[in-house]
Amino acid sequence: MAKNLEVSFLLDFYGEMLTEKQREVIEFYYNDDLSLAEIADNQGITRQGVRDAIKRAEALLFEMEAKLGLAKRFREMREGLTAIRAAAEIIDDYNSRYGYSREIHTNAMAIREMAEKLSR
Q: φ and ψ at 46, to 5 degrees?
């Protein structure tokens, strides 16, 4: 994943653990696509101060992810739920083609619905 997307993703998970100033600066830079100069003007600090705040916040986000792994776990869960939904569809399709069983259909639908619910 590109660094910009990765930082934005980690910000969703760990942004509240940053200081308010770090969170604002990194959101302006990554989510609002403002330049260092624009952020410096908005925040009343130097470009170097903005850069330092961004670098510290990035380091903290990556450190938290390394220790906690919440974003990685979220991705794995999302991928797993997608695979579960696909498998349930294959089972249901196979069931309808080769000797329909109402019980198999009902269970496949329940699996798909639960996977869908959990992925929201």
A: -80, 165
